[in-house]
Design brief:
Helix content of chain B: 55-70%
Distance between the termini of chain A: 35 Å
CATH class of chain A: Mainly Beta
Bound molecules: iron/sulfur cluster
Largest sheet of chain A: 6 strands, mixed
CATH architecture of chain A: 8 Propeller
Oligomer: heterodimer
Largest interface: A-B, 52 and 35 residues
Strand order of the largest sheet of chain A: 31-30-29-28-1-35
Number of helices of chain A: 1
Distance between the termini of chain B: 53 Å
Structural class of chain B: mainly alpha
Number of domains of chain A: 1
Number of strands of chain B: 2
Number of domains of chain B: 3
Structural class of chain A: mainly beta
Radius of gyration of chain B: 20 Å
CATH topology of chain A: Methanol Dehydrogenase, Chain A
CATH superfamily of chain A: Quinoprotein alcohol dehydrogenase-like superfamily
Helix content of chain A: under 10%
């Protein structure tokens, strides 16, 4: 009898583990993992022998760099769609790709009118898996995540000769009551004589139909990617603009709750940390400050100065009950700050500017940070002390030169390829690199 | 090592323009200082106020202004942004427009009265011990000065190699190379002081190269980026080190031979309303002229107008007079 009970218990435990791992999969659904831009995944690699798994090279052709040029691919998202692990990323060649996370083979592609510079977002809307991406052709696209079929496209401005290329952000999904909203920033400008304009506008659309619910003009300069938090229990959108402001808006109607002007241009998107007591916003500035702001009032809780501009979006990790903020700076360092006090925990000096954002994951349970530096290396550092766990040489830039502060660089993402943890980095050589540990890992 | 150095007392805009990080306060103070300097310049007794204006500007730019004062790069980039990014255009031009206006009215008033980098170099000339060494023509001292310049050159090269990024594109890091060039040109001057005028002419050619690089869309660095923008960037730090250390051996070598902003202001100043000329009855000797004018624009019987910073020290010493046009 006792033996039977033991066997039954074992079967039950196995079923529970099986159900748990299959029902919950930590997808990297959009820019910096989720709508709070935490950049933090619970995926754990089994060991630190992370090796190159595959390379996705969609185009044999690369064009010359020009000032203001973007990286060749947007940051990626990695999701489990009906049991299939798929990576989504837009590219410089006007194509948006869905790639099999296991082997890097192409599943489908969608061709738009211009390049994709920013990470897409994945969501299931009315049980239909959909992927949303904003394109420099001034349009926000909703595509079927399995087939690549265009479900809708929202053109923010009709084409005219005098329009410049739009500067867009990564979209986020907001679940409000029974409605799924898509929030995305688009900057349009026209050089029409006597009627020129420059508008950085936040659009909120019905994610299912593409119908515009509201839009709000926030700046004359481009806006960075919005993130989602809440103010006194109400959903709020936080967004920063290149002219130095951080805005908090009511997600329901787009009303500005507060606006604060920081020290210089902002090219970093805000990220949110919510705990029992309060919500805090973290953002870096071109003056080199990392700000921690109170989400309710916008007041500064603390600032920390780095040696040079910060364009990367802060990643927030929770290690052993303590929250840490990870950020890269043009002073070539990757920093870890205590989220509560702003105390510097460690910094690691790389060989060049660190512009892209960090991705947090685990290796054998140990918290690690994946970060890219313009010294052409992808680093994996220990989350608690900054020691190098692993690094990968990505090879030289394919351009002779990139203008400082003018180029969009993609960031690493972590997810699962079936049962195998995977690290994906869309690189500046127009290729998408995937890495994994020699032996599997867990979610 | 220096990452967390922070010396700015004010970091947010005091009078934000149109809800942006642009600060009308910076514009107003800059305009006010130029205006004050202009009045003081025209006033016979105003010369005494120069150190005061310089000190105020120094404190203002180093500790209060938290923006890079890139009058050349910022201007060219902002012209390229017309119709595309009005904020950048405004940002680039709102310092430049008063600068041009006052240069046309009063000559290189910015250099003589306001520029913190010029002020920092000038300070060496005001230390009697250093001034004595700088101006001593004895061969022994000349050798010592050369030796010091060689040491500064190697120190700058060492810093450059030590701190440069692993993947660096040299044109972008132009401040460090211009810094090294300052040391070399200063060395040539020490070897042959007679070549000063020829070396000064080089700065227009160097200005052309500098502007051409910016036109290509390259983000050139300046030695003052570190000071004004609080950017701990190796290229501007190496440039700054080279400029300041060289100024202790050859007075204001950067201003004389290389400064792109100074060179462009000197071109503009050709059209300005007031000129300084050596008095007909001046009996000033070569040595005395050097004691007075630290950019060596003043000679016994002549004055190199393109190098003159318009500090009026020679007027005060009775060697020159102001000629209103
Ligand atoms: S020449 Fe250049 S460094 Fe010298 S005072 Fe003029 S602007 Fe300043
Ligand atoms: S010539 Fe006179 S006014 Fe001009 S820089 Fe020399 S001392 Fe100053």
């Amino acid at each position: 009898m006792a033996c039977c009970v033991k066997k039954l218990t074992n079967v039950l435990v196995f079923c529970l583990i099986f159900l748990a791992t299959n029902a919950y999969c930590d997808d990297w659904t959009g820019f910096q993992h989720d709508s709070t831009h935490s950049g933090s995944s619970t995926v754990s690699f089994a060991d630190e022998f992370i090796t190159h798994l595959w390379t996705f090279s969609p185009t044999g052709r690369t064009w010359n760099y020009k000032s203001g040029s973007s990286v060749w691919s947007s940051s990626a998202c990695i999701v489990d769609v009906k049991g299939k692990s798929i990576i989504y990323a837009g590219f410089y060649n006007n194509n948006f790709y869905a790639v099999d996370a296991k082997d890097g083979s192409l599943i489908w592609r969608f061709i738009a009118g211009n390049r994709f510079n920013h990470a897409p977002v994945f969501a299931e809307i009315n049980s239909r898996p959909m992927v949303f991406a904003a394109c420099s052709d001034r349009t926000i696209y909703a595509l079927d995540a399995l087939s690549g079929e265009k479900i809708w496209g929202y053109e923010t401005l009709p084409w005219s000769y005098m329009l410049s290329e739009a500067i867009v952000s990564s979209p986020i999904i907001i679940r409000l009551d029974n409605l799924s909203l898509l929030a995305c920033a688009v900057w349009n400008s026209s050089q029409m004589p006597f009627n020129s304009f420059q508008k950085g506008q936040l659009y909120v659309l019905n994610a299912a139909s593409g119908e515009k619910l509201y839009s709000v003009v926030l700046s004359a300069t481009p806006l960075n990617s919005p993130c989602l938090g809440n103010i006194n229990g109400e959903p709020a959108i936080f967004i920063s603009s290149n002219d130095g402001s951080v805005f908090a808006l009511n997600a329901k109607d787009g009303k500005v709750i507060w606006q604060v002007i920081l020290d210089s241009g902002l090219f970093s998107s805000p990220s949110i940390l919510s705990d029992k007591q309060n919500s805090r916003i973290f953002i870096g500035s071109r003056f080199g400050n990392l700000y921690c702001l109170d989400a309710v009032t916008g007041k500064t809780i603390w600032t920390k100065k780095t040696g040079h501009a910060i364009d990367s979006t802060p990643a927030i990790g929770n290690i052993d009950g303590n929250a840490y903020v990870y950020i890269g700076s043009y002073d070539r360092n990757i920093y870890c700050f205590d989220a509560a006090t702003g105390e510097k925990v460690w910094n690691y000096k790389t060989g060049d500017y660190v512009v892209s954002s960090c991705a947090l994951a685990r290796i054998s349970g140990r918290a690690v940070v994946f970060a890219h530096s313009l010294d052409n290396k992808l680093y994996c550092l220990d989350g608690l002390n900054g020691s190098v766990v692993w690094n990968f040489d990505l090879g030289k830039l394919i351009w002779a030169y990139n203008t400082r502060g003018d180029t969009i660089w993609s960031s690493p993402a972590v997810g699962m390829a079936g049962d195998k943890p995977i690290l994906v980095f869309p690189c500046y050589d127009s290729k998408l690199y995937a890495f994994s540990a020699a032996i599997g890992g867990s979610n | 090592m220096f990452e967390n150095l922070k010396w700015k007392l004010v970091e947010r805009p005091i009078l934000p323009i149109g809800n942006t990080y642009l600060d009308a306060f910076v514009f107003l103070v800059f305009f006010g200082l130029l205006f004050f300097a202009g009045i003081a310049l025209k006033n016979k007794r105003g010369i005494g106020l120069r150190p005061f204006v310089q000190a105020v500007t120094f404190v203002f730019f180093i500790f209060i202004v938290h923006r890079c004062f890139c009058a050349l790069r910022g201007t060219i980039f902002s012209f390229q942004d017309i119709g595309k990014n009005d904020l950048n255009v405004f940002n680039g031009l709102f310092i430049l427009v008063p600068l041009i206006a006052f240069t046309l009215l009063f000559g290189r008033i910015f250099c003589a009265w306001l520029c913190p980098l010029g002020f920092m170099q000038e300070v060496f000339f005001r230390v009697p011990f250093i001034k004595r060494i700088i101006l001593d023509p004895a061969p022994r001292i000349k050798r010592l000065r050369l030796l010091l310049l060689v040491a500064i050159f190697f120190a700058a090269v060492f810093l450059l190699l030590e701190f440069r990024p692993k993947t660096f594109f040299f044109v972008q890091n132009i401040a460090s190379f211009w810094g090294l060039a300052t040391i070399i040109l200063a060395g040539l001057f020490v070897l042959n002081p007679g070549a000063d005028l020829k070396l000064k002419k080089l700065r227009y050619f160097l200005l052309f190269i500098w502007l051409f690089i910016i036109f290509l869309g390259i983000f050139v660095t300046d030695p003052w980026c570190a000071l004004y923008g609080n950017e701990i960037d190796y290229s501007s730090l190496v440039g700054l080190f080279a400029v300041l250390a060289t100024a202790a051996i050859v007075p204001m070598a950067w201003c004389r031979y290389l400064c792109p902003l100074g060179s462009s202001l000197s071109l503009m100043a050709k059209f300005f309303q007031i000129k300084i000329k050596v008095k007909k009855d001046s009996v000033i000797s070569k040595i005395e002229a050097r004691q007075i004018c630290y950019v060596q624009a003043l000679e016994e019987k002549a004055l190199d107008k393109s190098s003159c910073l318009f500090c009026k020290r020679c007027v005060e010493a009775g060697a020159s007079e102001i000629e209103e046009l």
